[in-house]
Amino acid sequence: MTLLVATTWDPEPWVERFQSLMPELPVVIPGDIFDRRRVSYVAAWGPKSGALSGLPALEVIFSLGAGVDHLMGYPDLPPVPIVRVMSDDLTTRMSEYVVLHCLLYLRDQRRYDAQQRAKIWEQDRSPPRASDVRVGIMGVGVLGQDAARKLSMMGFDVAGWSRTPRAVDGFETFAGREGLDAFLARTDILVCLLPLTPETRGILNRTLFERLARDGRLGGPFLINAGRGGLQIEQDIVACLDDGTLKGATLDVFETEPLPEDSPLWLHPRVTVTPHVSAVSSPDATARSIVEQIRRHEAGEPLEGVVDLARGY
Ligand code: NDP
Ligand code: OXD
């Protein structure tokens, strides 16, 4: 039994964590010399082409992130279960990001940052309250539900949108293409936590932005995308910011990562760019959850978080 760690990130902290959590499990990386016939598990993030071939004893592929789109298009993907990360650590980080950026919009913090730089003392004496602001979360999965709960605790008026109908305590939900219009029409801050699939690719486009609410207390709709860059059409985002269809955007993910130096998003006055860090998979928490799953699997118990390959997430 061997674990192969195939990632575009620095593998060292991962190898170290896996080894210390499960000393009996040999851990290798693609450049090592090892017997491919002994590899039962792969822990992967964007594995290089060929890294997953010729592993006849492979039992499970663990994605090192919650998203699995980095594996979906992989040529010759071995026919074994793919398991995504579900950890409180990652979920909490994402909710922090979403709550932070919703609060920055609620509290008009960019304006006060600009005022500070210009030494202007000017007060909005009747700012909106959280309950005046309608947040719409696309994706009511592990991340979307946690963010929704935390935003609701802050007082925001939250709704969610998913592929299939979901009844979740504490906030309203909409589903499918037929529920999308009503969902968008009640949304001042659109938070995208969708997976990237053939169905969701490019969904964040002008047609969708034009259907967002225009009667809210923030003076126009805002976009927060922490799902995947392939969900958004960046040309549309820039054009919609420039013509007022969108009032602002916070983007953690991009069509091309790293974001190219010549992207207009970098310096756009109404865009906040973060480098795909809204919810990093920490080696400690992620390796811990994978090791737990390996132990369960070895004990004959079912794996948790198995990806449905037909849905793509
Ligand atoms: P889940 O699989 O738990 O939830 C996905 C949600 O998206 C579900 O509610 C699902 O609907 C919905 N969905 C999927 N396809 C569609 C569709 N076509 N139309 C409407 N809704 C759809 O995923 P997580 O919440 O754990 O993660 C979501 C994504 O967040 C990941 O796939 C990843 O891309 C991204 N992510 C980004 C990170 C970052 O650092 N930027 C970190 C971690 C994750 P249904 O409920 O009906 O199945
Ligand atoms: C993830 C990510 O999918 O970090 O977990 O993007």
Helical residue percent band: 25-40%
**Spans of 5+ residues with little confidence (pLDDT < 50)?**
none
Mean pLDDT: 97
Q: Please trace the helix and strand order, writing H or E for each element.
A: EHEEEHEHHEHEEHEHEHEEH
The small-molecule ligands in this entry are:
NADPH dihydro-nicotinamide-adenine-dinucleotide phosphate, oxalic acid
Q: Alpha-carbon distance between the termini?
A: 27 Å
Query: Compute the gyration radius: what is it?
Result: 21 Å
Number of strands: 12
Number of discrete helical segments: 9
Structural class: alpha/beta
Strand order, sheet with most strands: 8-7-6-9-10-11-12
Strand content: 15-25%
Apparent shape: elongated
Main sheet record: 7 strands, parallel
